[in-house]
Amino acid sequence: MPVSLQPDTLSYKSTVFDFAFHPTQDIIATGLITGHISCVRYVPGLGNNQPLWSVRPSKKSCRGLAFSHDGAGLFTVSKDGAIGALDVNTGAVLIKKPEAHDDPINAIKLLTENILATGDDSGTIKLWDVRTGNETMQYTEHDDFISDFDYDTDSKTLVASSGQGTISIYDIRKPTMLAMSANQDDELLSICIVKDRRKVVVGSQEGVLNIYSWGDWGDCTDRFIGHPNSIDTICKIDEDTVATGSSDGIIRVIDILPNKFQGIVGEHEDFPIECIKVSHDKTYLASSSHDDTVRFWDVRYLTGDREENEDDSQEAQEVTGDNEKDSSDDEAGPSGDMDVDSDDSDAPKKSNRRPKKQAPAPTNAAFFDDL
Q1: Is-contact 346 101, C-beta < 8 A?
Q2: Domain boundary among 243, 267, 291
Q3: Which of 56, 127, 129, 365 is 20 to 30 Å apart from 175, CA to CA?
Q4: Regarding beta strands 146-152 and 27-32, do their DSSP bridges make them parallel or antiparallel, or are they unpaired?
Q5: Residue 303: in which H helix or E strand, if any?
Q6: Looking at the structure, do residues 179 and 220 belong to the same domain, yes or no?
C-alpha cells in the first residue's frame, strides 16, 4: 500500500459552506459563508498546497459548488437565489443568473453534461439547460428545504432528500414526480445511491441511516442505528461502503447490507461536519467543518484490500481456466485566509440548511446566453 501522505489542511477565517473536487485534476474549490470562492491545487505534504485564485462574486453566502464535466467551469449557487459560472483557470465570473430561485438555494448537482439541478430552502427543485440557461423542469412537491441530491445516469433518475422528512424521485425527462416516500417524522439531510442502484441510503437528523430499496419508495426497508448525532453528509466510497459526516465531528465508514460500522476516517474534534467528498482518483476524502477548515484524509486503504482480493480472485479464475484448458487438451482438450466582511446575516445554523452536493457541469459560451 502507498505511504500515507496527505495534503495540508486548508484554513479560512469563516465557515466553509461547500467544496467540490475537480473531475480530473488535483484541484479543490471552496465556497464560504462570506461569498468568497477559491481554488487550490492540493499537493501531499505540509505547506505544499498551491492557491490558484480567490474571488467574491457575491456578498451573500456561497451555498454550493459544482465543477463542469470537462473541469473548465465552476457552477455556484448562493443565498440570494442566484446561479453563476466561473472560469476555473482565472476565477473570472462568466455568467450570473440572479433570482434563479425565489428562495436561498441549498443544493446543487450536475446530472448530465447539460442539465444542472438546484434545490432551495422552500422545497422547490429546478432543472436547467446549461447551454441556454433556460429552466427545463420545476418540481414543487416539498414544503421544506431540499438538503441533498443524488442521480442515477442509467435510469436518468434524480433522488432528493428534504427537511420535511421525505425523499422524492424524478425521471428528469418527465414533468411530474415519480414517487415520494412516507414521512419519517425526522429531517432527512443527506442521500446516496449504492449497491448498483439497488439501494438508497439517507441520513437523518436523529442519526439514523434509512435504507430504501430501489423502486419501493413507500418506506425504508432497513435502518442502521448507531450515530449519536445527525448525519449531515454522506459520500460513496464504493457500491458497498459509504462515509458519513456527523454533527459530533466524526467521519465514519459504514458497510451497507450487511450493515456494519467499519471504522473512523478522521474527525474535526467537536465541530459538526458540513460536507465530505472523495477526490477524482479516490485517493483522498476531504471534509469541511464549522472549525473553518477543509481537511484531507488518505482513504486508499478503504478500497485497497477489496481491490487486491478482486485481483486475486480474478487471477485464481484465470489459473483455473488455464488448468481446465490444459487438462482438456491432454485428454483431447493552501491554505488561504479570507476577510469576513460579509453582509450575509445568516450564520450557518448547525443543522440542516447546509449545502452539499458534488457535481460537475460543462462551461459553455452559450451558457445562460438568454441574459
Answers
A1: no
A2: 267
A3: 365
A4: unpaired
A5: helix 300-331
A6: yes
CA 134/CA 125 separation, integer angstroms? 14
Distance CA 58, CA 116 (A): 20
Domain boundary among 267, 293, 325: 267
Contact 27/88 with Cβ under 8 angstroms?
yes
For residue 119, give the CATH number of its domain. Answer: 2.130.10.10
Distances (CA, A) of 198 to 192, 195, 202, 257, 259: 11, 5, 14, 11, 15
Range of the domain at 62: 9-140+357-371
Residue 195 lies in a domain: yes
Phi, then psi, of 93 in degrees rounded to 5: -75, 115
| Residues 213 and 111 reside in one and the same domain | no
Cα separation of 323 and 358, whole Å? 47
β-partners of residue 40 are: 28, 51
Are 291 and 12 spatial neighbours (Cβ–Cβ below 8 Å)? no
Which amino acid type is present at position 271?
F
pLDDT in tens, the chain (371 residues): 344 589 999 999 999 999 999 999 999 999 999 999 999 999 999 999 999 999 999 999 999 999 999 999 999 999 999 999 999 999 999 989 999 999 999 999 999 999 999 999 999 999 999 989 999 999 999 999 999 999 999 999 999 999 999 999 999 999 999 999 999 999 999 999 999 999 999 999 999 999 999 999 999 999 999 999 999 999 999 999 999 999 999 999 999 999 999 999 999 998 999 999 999 999 999 999 999 999 999 999 997 655 554 554 455 444 444 444 443 333 333 334 434 444 454 444 444 444 443 333 333 444 444 33
> How far apart, in whole angstroms, are the C-alpha atoms of residue 94 and residue 35?
16
Residue 112 corresponds to which amino acid?
A: T
Q: What is the pTM of this model?
A: 0.83
The residue whose grid cell reads 484448458 is 325
